[in-house]
Structures are given as structure tokens and as C-alpha cells.
Amino acid sequence: IKRDSRFAQLTEEHVAYFRELLGSESAVIDGVTSSDAADDIEPFNSDWMRKYRGHCKLVLKPASTEEVSKILKYCNDKMLAVVPQGGNTGLVGGSVPVFDEIVINMSRMSQILEFDDVSGTLVAEAGCILEVADQFLAEKGYIFPLDLGAKGSCQIGGNVSTNAGGLRLLRYGSLHGTVLGIEAVLADGTVVDDLCKLRKNNTGYDLKQLFIGAEGTIGIITKVSIQCPQRSPAQNVAFFGLESFDQVQQAFRAAKGQLSEILSAFELMDEGSQALVRQVTNNKRPLEDKYPFYCLIETSGSNADHDSEKLQAFLEDVMEKGIVVDGTLAQDETQIKALWAWREGITEALSHLGGTYKYDVSIPLKELYQLVEDTRARVDAAGLLGDTEEFPVRAVVGYGHMGDANLHLNVSTRRFDERVEKVLEPFVYEWIAERQGSISAEHGLGVMKKKFIGYSRNPTMVGLMRDIKTTFDPNGILNPYKYL
Ligand code: FAD
Questions:
Q1: Atom of ligand 1 nearest to the CA of 155
Q2: Which fold has domain 234-346?
Q3: Nearest to 481 by CA among 440, 448, 457
Q4: Does 353-443 match 234-346 at the fold level?
Q5: DSSP category for residue 194
Q6: What CA–CA distance (Å, rounded) separates 484 from 102?
Q7: Which pLDDT does position 304 carry in this prediction?
Q8: What does the alpha-carbon distance between residue 69 and residue 56 come to, in Å, rounded to a whole number?
Q9: Nearest CA to ligand 1 atom 4
């Protein structure tokens, strides 16, 4: 890609305007007029995977909706391109610049504004960290309806902008259902106040839905109101080993049937992914023997005894029927955390081993794991997979949110390598398109999948998306080079 020549280059005059507007010294990191700022800017330029790297020279940290509005109006008038940035944990290269776009970082807008402990409605600024919101809610007996491995650094605004799915979508549904309202600023500085706190509101098009999953391409989300469920007093976690993907499917069916309303997560991990976590953490594995597949089941209910009885009965039943070979139940909070770490820790573990090619996809359940096997065979046939240094690929593994038919196919490499990428793309996307799957289940498009959108969306839909983009951001200053 080439830098879009319609965009202006940053000058001292621009920086002076932003300094005056934002006041506080720490709100502007300026590498335009000062060459000392390079180190300070670096973290805003590189993504979590260290796969994408931009060349921005200016980071702005607004503290209010009004400041966001003034920044955007100015940028729009001067044709300065921008990248909205939350916790910078996104996995498709959407949160960092491609060239010299200005980073608008939301970390200073982190306040929790309102909570109604009867309805469970939370209103917070977009820069509020997910874990902070969840801890606030825990004290009130509530839970944030989204949870994911990056909770300690990702922000609610980033979560909504990527339409993050996470570990309990199975139970609490998608952000398209739980987000009640949004306040956002459009490219020209217009503030869209749709910070509704009602569960029902059928007056006209539901515009907030467009911002959910828009990855900062049509506006900057400044506030969110969201429906939070009561926190279940009782939580149980089981971790078990299975011999085949067919049995994983049988176990999932049985879990839905027998655990029904208390089932809150059903996660899948293959042996390859667990071996890598073990290699990095050196922790003792939950089960003594190795199995091709592992599942983690979580229940959340109102009565601990009743729930563990149900989970115990479920485990006995599936073991008796030979669906599950071996399993363990967490006995306390520490063990619950330890079991979850085998699932939540995969992304992090892989990041310590080199470069990871990540494909976050939805596939009809029956064929979910076939993609991992076909990809592994393909990488192997190309002579790229092996145990020693000369092979770029260490392992091809699969894990994910089984309950949502969402697979994370991960190709763990010793270093990013174009030969590997060529073997994987567009192969993976073609494979998915043939099965009417989605090339992006929950991570979004960003830079990584921009050019592959056609594998999951037809030309009519892509055309309508372009129309929406143009209506909200006619100059195209918001997160350019990405998404569409
Ligand atoms: P960023 O990475 O900063 O930004 C993501 C995108 O949103 C960018 O395009 C950015 O421009 C835009 N954006 C950010 N803030 C705003 C805003 N206020 N207004 C407009 N646009 C904005 N995802 C899942 O769905 N499920 C998972 O289970 C999951 N697990 C993860 C585990 C780990 C260890 C990691 C590192 C990531 C995981 N992710 C997962 C990826 C997920 O997309 C992000 O973690 C999170 O939702 C992004 O939030 P963020 O604040 O870091 O956003």
C-alpha cells in the first residue's frame, strides 16, 4: 500500500494547535518538533503481536468528548488522518498507524460514569479498562457481559469497536445485544449522542449498531452504556480430555442438554496448543495423560451445591458413555483460575515463541477442526513444519470458543516468514468461503483481512458498507488503509 497523498503532512503549526487545545503536557507526545520523543511514541506504533508497525509522530490523549470533537474537526479540515486507539491489544493490526496517521489514544477517558443497581445498566467512558469495569461491577454483585484474555489492558471502547466476543458469549450474548447506547464523534467533529439506557428502543434505524465492530472507521466511540447481568454466586469449572473431535461435539451437545441454564462457557483446546502453554509456563498439566483434545466447561449459577452436583452428574454420564476419557473438577477459586489459565494463556504463550499467524474464524461446527488438520498438512507438504531451527513453523494449533463455532487457527513460527504466509493465504480464506464460514469471527478486519473481505461478504454488501463509510467520514480520515 502507498500513503494516500490527499492527507497532509504534520507541521509545527498543527502540533501547536493540539498543545493549546489539550493543555496538559502528558496529553501530547510530539515527535514532530522533537526528536527525543521516538522512544515514547514506539509503543503506540507497534501492535500487541509485534507484527504491524506504523510511523506516527504524534499521539494525542483527549480527556473529554469535547476534546475528541475538536481534534477530529481540526483533522478533518486539515486532511490529517487519524487512528483511534484503545488498549492496543487488537489482533488484526487495526489499532496502529500504517504510515504517519495521528494516534488518538483513549486512555485518559477512563471514568465509570453511572451504574443502576436495579437494572444493571453501566455507563462508562470508552477508555475504561475492561477489568476495571468488571471489578467495579463485582462489588455491586454484577458482571461485565464480556470477558477475554486481554482484560487487564483492553478498553471497553476497543471491545465495542471490535465487537469482541470472548469467553462467555455463549451465555451473555454478543455486544450487539448488550450494548444499549453509544456516544461517538464523527470525522467532522459531530457528536452523536445515542447514549440510551433502555433495553427496548425501536424508534428508527438502530445507528449505534454500526459503530459496534466498525474498528474506528466511522467515528470514535467516547461513551458506552451496557446491560450487565447479575454475577452468579456459584462458579464451577471442569477440564477434560477427549480422543476425537467427534467426541468434542457429542460432549458439547450433552453439556447443553444437561447443564442448560447454568452453562456459561464451553472452550476447546487441542494438544498442540496445550503443549505450547506447557513449554512456556512450565506449569503442571491439569490431566496426567495427553489427549488430542481438551474442553473447559464453566457453569455459573445461583446454588453451588446444586451446580456442582449437576456438573458431577454430567461428567459421570459422558465418561460412562465413553465420550470423555478423563476429567478434573476445580475445587476452589485458585483451581478455577489455574484451569482457565490453560485456555486464556494460549495467546500469550504463543507470543513468547516467535511470530504467530492468527486466523480467527467461524466455521459450521462439524468441520471446525478440519481446517487445522488441512492447514497442518499443507504447511508440512510445503516443507515448512519441523522441530528444528531450519523450519520456520513450529506448530499448527487450534483452539477457541467451541460454543460459538469460533476457531482460532494459529500457526506458530520461529519468525514471520513470507513463504509461510504464501502457503496460508489465501488458502485459509478459500477454505472458509467454500463452507460459508466467516473469515473474521471476533477480531475484526484491520489491516490483516482488509483485502479478504470478499470471501465472507458479497459485492452488494461491501458496496453498502462503503456508502456508510462515506456518509460518516467523507474525507476518509478515520483509520485509513484498513477494513474496507
Ligand atoms: P485496540 O486494539 O486499541 O483497537 C482495536 C480496534 O478498535 C482498532 O481498529 C481501533 O482503531 C479501534 N478502536 C479502539 N478504541 C476505539 C474507540 N474508542 N472508538 C473507535 N474505535 C476504537 N478478542 C475477542 O473478541 N475475543 C477474545 O477472546 C480475545 N482474546 C484476546 C486475548 C489476548 C491475550 C489478546 C491480546 C487479544 C484478544 N482479543 C480477543 C482481541 C480483541 O480484539 C481485543 O483484545 C480487544 O477487544 C480490543 O480492545 P483494545 O482496547 O485493545 O482496542
A1: 51
A2: Alpha-Beta Plaits (3.30.70)
A3: 448
A4: yes
A5: E
A6: 20
A7: 87
A8: 21
A9: 95
Q: Where are the alpha helices (DSSP H) in 102-174?
A: 130-139, 156-162, 169-172
CA of 43 to the centre of ligand 1 (A): 15
Q: In this predicted structure, which of 31-40, 125-134, 416-425 has the lowest mean pLDDT?
A: 31-40
Atom of ligand 1 nearest to the CA of 83: 11
pTM: 0.96
Distance 270 CA to ligand 1 centre (A): 24
Which residues, in sequence order, are bridge partners of residue 105?
Answer: 85
Q: What is the pLDDT of residue 25?
A: 86
Q: Are 100 and 200 in contact (CB under 8 A)?
A: no
Amino acid letter, 159: N
- CATH topology for 112-227 is 3.30.465
Among 44, 82, 154, name the best residue to mutate to test ligand 1's pocket (greatest count of ligand atoms within 8 A of Cβ): 154
Please give the pLDDT value at position 161: 98
pLDDT in tens, 229-273: 999 999 999 999 999 999 999 999 999 999 999 999 999 999 999
C-alpha dihedral, 268 to 272 to 277 to 283, nearest 10° = 100
The domain limits of the chain are 112-227, 234-346, 353-443
* Residue 233: per-residue pLDDT: 93
Atom of ligand 1 nearest to the CA of 184: 19
* 40-77 pLDDT, tens digit each: 999 999 999 999 999 999 999 999 999 999 999 999 99
Average pLDDT of the residues of the chain: 96
Residue 155 Cα, ligand 1 centroid: separation in angstroms?
7
- Is the Cβ–Cβ distance between 229 and 172 less than 8 Å? yes
- Distant-in-sequence contacts of 5-12, Cβ < 8 A, 24+ apart: 6/79, 6/475, 6/476, 7/79, 7/80, 7/81, 7/101, 7/477, 7/480, 8/78, 8/79, 8/80, 9/100, 10/57, 10/58, 10/80, 10/100, 10/102
> Where is average pLDDT lowest: 100-104, 163-167, 303-307, 453-457?
303-307
> Hey, what CATH topology would domain 353-443 get?
Alpha-Beta Plaits (3.30.70)
For ligand 1, the distance from its centroid to the CA atom of residue 360, given in whole angstroms, is: 13
